[in-house]
Amino acid sequence: MKVIVVDDNRERLQKVLAACGVASRRKCEEYITAGRVKVNGETVTELGTKVSKKDLIQVDGKYLQREELVYYVMNKPTGYLTTVSDPKGRRTVMDLLEPETKKKRIFPIGRLDYDTSGVLLLTNDGDLSYRLTRSNKEIEKTYQVRVEGIINQTAVTNLIKGVMIDGVMTKRAKIEILGLDRVNNSTLLTITITEGRNRQVRKMCETVGFPVKKLKRIEFGTITLEGLSVGSYRPLKPHEIKKLYSL
């Protein structure tokens, strides 16, 4: 049996599980409430449970040990699902990783749609994933967007102020017009949002009458696509990880 290594102070069980790379903190909470976690041989279902470095922790009967935490940024291509696996056998972003990289049991932070490309973070650090995807964290995410039509000031103003999608108003956004293509009747712009709702940018643009033709996320917090070709990835640098934790 292996004793899990945690900080000297007692920590919440779900945080320790996430730090061990079991899953995101939210998913670890589900494991606990489902009775899949044991501490010192006893099933624990209370989310407030705290553990120390002396405690023996099991998930589905397997003892845990702390993994080396790893962090990557990928330039995700279109045509890949942002998930660890797909029951229908479709391509996922995990197919773009080297076998050695996948040994760390990494997973994507948040999601990018199948037909959206750009910045995607991957890690085995469930605690960071939880921090970056919490709904109350207003982390800026910037998208380069090609929309149908020559966008007008009314549409831009509405996008900035917020529009109604799925019965809820979006928060304020930042908009920058990069170019108007009158020959092909399209507009290139950047949209910066602080939310992460399902297909949000596409729905926002559709709501103001300018459907998206092409969508790429070019920045997540402080992380950009600099130096990354489509489909490639690289480890994050220590100062980049530190900045993500400070968001």
Supply database-style keywords.
247 residues; alpha+beta; Structural Genomics Hypothetical 15.5 Kd Protein In mrcA-pckA Intergenic Region, Chain A; Alpha-Beta Plaits; 3 domains; 9-stranded mixed sheet; 4-stranded antiparallel sheet; 7 helices; 17 strands; 22% helix; elongated; disordered N terminus
Provide the CATH top-level class of the largest domain: Alpha Beta
The CATH architecture of the largest domain comes to: 2-Layer Sandwich
User: So how many helices?
Assistant: 7
Major β-sheet annotation = 9 strands, mixed
Order of helices and strands: EHHEEEEEEHEEHEHEEEEHEEEH
The CATH homologous superfamily of the largest domain is termed: Pseudouridine synthase I, catalytic domain, N-terminal subdomain
Q: How many domains would you count in the coordinates?
A: 3
Radius of gyration: 21 Å
Backbone structural class? alpha+beta
The name of the CATH topology of the largest domain is Alpha-Beta Plaits
Query: What do the pLDDT scores average to?
Result: 91
Query: How large a portion of the residues is in β-strands, by DSSP E?
Result: 25-35%
First and last CA, distance: 37 Å
Count of extended strands:
17
Shape: elongated
Fraction in helix: 10-25%
Low-confidence stretches are 1-8
